[in-house]
Design brief:
heterodimer, A: alpha/beta, five-stranded mixed beta sheet, 47% helix, B: mainly alpha, 73% helix
């Protein structure tokens, strides 16, 4: 008799376990490995699960290099994430592959998105549908080493405001050895880093041109403005000798090591630069041109719901997306990762705009452009090669610029087919 | 027991009418069937799939449609392909003889060293055990300009102008090749040593009694008898250099295959076409071309070097 009771209670126990197990929906969230982002997302997931005990979120991360491939392969195989992080520049690819679904207008009304978020989220809109929402946005700024400025006799609280001052400060802060080799750069030159964005969306415009027209499907920088922008950039190494492509391997490494006085980089670098112990650094807006015109490049990783999520998983995914794009989530993201909130109200607080570090990045968002890439890696490669042809092969900048424009147009045209 | 003897004794059964040899064949094929089926599914099926993909425009995100030889036409008209083709052959033409020459020389003399022989051999073998990626990152650091690059720091301290290495379109390929050659030495030395040890000592004794010089012994005895080893290593290392990838990719991750595609081998081009631009059909066409190159080179080498 006792045995029967025991058996019955075990059975009841299993039954309750099974039902509670079935009640909790588990959704998967995928993003690439970047220490601070993973940490921030872990905090967000913990908070979200506390508020929604019936939903479990599993975070999966892997290296950036394989990111797109793995996501594509997994979703097409019916596996993979319910909510996925993607670079805004991959949106067309993800939509074409039927990997992500448009956000339901009832859950995410377009009018609300356009009212609350910075206008750059429009890069996630196709037709009337939004395909994802960012937690944070990133813009560029000039990082400078205050110690290097002081050592060179420059005012560490008065960083360069325009391009002429930038070159002058770079010349003063560059250190060379007896044979003329740079041992500490005035400014980093790293097209593979953020300099290609600086060149495209900032310098080209500051010299009077536009990089693209027709929703970024027509390359238009092959003109006088583009040539001046390219010459300005390559002259930093060729004429002024204040930087060198490949110096210390990467621009950010040179700056971290205290061997570059200035570098142009994005908000996402804050987490890494915050650990610098050897010197104090500052941030300022990207230098204006002689007429005071400024420009910037803004970008973001958005969170989208995949076509895999259906039924109750879809509902859970929507809840999770709403949470990670909420003001509360943005605050956490700013504190942990250092990326700027994508909602205007959350970003433009007096505390943030007056912040010595966030301030310049936020100002940059006002006049920032967002390139609609077709194949981000390939288009970046075009810019890298353009500069290399001039710096390594000694090609005429004009010819190199023309070839770059032609190559990039071919990439865009192929993607359109 | 009785049932078994009964069955064996029963006349007319197919199995019992077979000879021992036939039974052995059936058993052999029975066991071989599993790995064969496995091999067909894992190896041949994807290969045929690649041939099929190369005549489509599949791009992961869009369904594939048949486009005939369009991909091959595009490939042969692409200047990048010919550049990459040249690079790939440079890796082969420089890499194979240099690595074989060095490893043979090392093995030839190491064979005579008695003092700490196994230790030295192990030292040579060590790089072969290391991951190519890790190795490439260390060498990448060696090649940096001053103030961190080891080689350039040394040059600078002797007053020699620093070299661009990975930032030069002419120096980059040899610079990338060097660690690849260095890493493969250990393996080749071991194989050469085994080959040298397999030559009967009596031949050498006879030659020395006949008064042959060391050079003549090397030319007339050692090298001819090493031929099987040599054939194996030539084919093996040629295929290795034709498929070079990890060293190139990791030594310059910011601009893989650069600068200006001067170090890009065919495999890296395939990788970028497939996994960066998602042009799977086009990448498959490149793979087929690589496959044909590997096939032809291996067949030619085997034919040239076979025993007549």
């Amino acid at each position: 008799m006792r045995f029967r009771h025991l058996l019955a209670s075990v059975a009841i126990g299993f039954a309750t376990l099974a039902t509670t197990g079935a009640k909790a929906v588990e959704i998967e969230y995928w993003q690439y490995v970047f220490d601070t982002r993973v940490k921030a997302m872990n905090q967000l997931i913990a908070k979200f699960q506390e508020a929604n005990p019936d939903i479990k979120v599993k975070q999966t991360t892997f290296p950036y290099a394989d990111y797109q491939t793995k996501v594509a392969a997994a979703i097409l195989a019916g596996q993979g994430p319910d909510v996925v992080q993607l670079f805004y520049g991959w949106t067309d690819n993800f939509i074409a592959g039927k990997m992500i679904r448009p956000l339901r207008a009832e859950a995410f009304p377009a009018a609300d998105i356009e009212r609350d978020f910075f206008p750059i989220v429009k890069a996630m809109k196709r037709g009337n549908d939004y395909y994802g929402l960012p937690t944070a946005v990133r813009s560029l700024a000039l990082f400078y080493n205050k110690k290097a400025f002081k050592d060179a006799g420059l005012d560490p609280n008065n960083p360069p405001k325009n391009l002429d001052e930038l070159v002058a400060a770079a010349e003063k802060t560059t250190k060379r050895d007896g044979s003329g080799n740079i041992v500490s750069a005035g400014i980093t030159l790293d097209m593979a880093g953020q300099d290609h964005q600086w060149w495209r969306e900032v310098l080209v415009r500051q010299f009077g041109g536009t990089p693209y027209t027709d929703e970024d499907t027509k390359v238009t920088y092959n003109d006088d403005a583009g040539l001046k922008a390219l010459t300005f950039y390559t002259d930093l190494q060729k004429k002024h000798k204040v930087g060198q492509v490949g110096f210390m391997d990467e621009g950010q490494a040179a700056f971290r090591a205290g061997l570059a006085a200035m570098t142009i980089d994005g908000t996402f670098r804050l987490g890494s630069f915050n650990t610098i112990k050897g010197f104090e650094w500052g941030v300022t807006e990207l230098p204006a041109n002689a007429e005071g015109l400024r420009s910037n490049y803004a970008s973001y990783f958005a969170n989208a719901i995949t076509t895999k999520a259906e039924g109750e998983k879809l509902a859970a995914a929507e809840k999770f997306l709403a949470y990670v794009s909420s003001p509360e989530a943005m605050k956490i993201w700013l504190e942990v990762v250092g990326e700027l909130p994508a909602r205007r109200a959350a970003a433009l607080t007096p505390e943030n705009t007056g912040h010595p570090i966030y301030g310049p990045f936020l100002k940059g968002l006002d006049y920032a452009h967002t390139t609609l890439f077709k194949d981000e890696a390939a288009q970046r490669q075009v810019a890298i090669d353009m500069v290399n042809r001039v710096l390594i092969n000694g090609d005429d900048p004009k010819a190199s610029l023309a070839k770059a424009a032609q190559d990039e147009q071919a990439i865009i045209d192929r993607a359109k087919r | 027991m009785s049932a078994v003897t009964h069955r064996e004794a029963a006349p007319g059964g197919l199995w019992s009418r077979m000879s021992l040899g036939q039974k052995q064949v059936i058993w052999a094929w029975g066991f071989l069937a599993v790995p064969l089926a496995f091999y067909a599914v894992i190896r041949f099926w994807p290969t045929f799939q690649a041939f099929y993909l190369s005549v489509t425009d599949w791009s992961i995100t869009r369904p594939a449609s048949f486009i005939g030889l369009e991909n091959y036409k595009r490939l042969f008209a692409d200047p990048l392909f010919w550049q990459v083709f040249r690079n790939t052959f440079m890796y082969l033409i420089l890499g194979t003889p240099i690595s074989l020459l060095i490893s043979f020389t090392v093995a030839y003399y190491l064979d005579r060293v008695r003092f700490m022989h196994s230790f030295i051999r192990a030292l040579y073998f060590l790089p072969f055990l290391t991951t190519a990626a890790a190795m490439a990152w260390v060498w990448r650091w060696f090649y940096q300009p001053v103030p961190i690059g080891v080689i350039n720091d040394m040059l600078a301290s002797f007053g020699i102008p620093q070299q661009p290495f990975l930032r030069s379109t002419t120096q980059a390929l040899p610079a990338v090749l060097a660690p690849a050659v260095w890493a493969g030495l250990g393996f080749q030395i071991i194989i050469f040593l085994a080959g040298l040890r397999a030559i009967p000592v009596t031949y050498y004794e006879a030659a020395r009694i006949d008064g042959l010089s060391e050079g003549a012994i090397l030319r007339k005895i050692t090298l001819p008898l090493l031929k099987p080893t040599l054939v194996f290593l030539v084919v093996f290392s040629s295929i290795g250099f034709l498929r070079i990838f990890d060293q190139v990719y990791n030594i310059n991750t910011n601009d893989p295959g650069g600068p200006l595609n001067s170090t890009k081998p065919l495999v890296l081009m395939i990788y970028q076409t497939a996994f960066s631009s998602y042009e799977m059909g086009y990448a498959a066409a490149q793979t087929v071309v690589l496959f044909l190159i590997l096939l032809v080179i291996s067949l030619v080498q085997l034919r040239l070097m076979r025993d007549r």
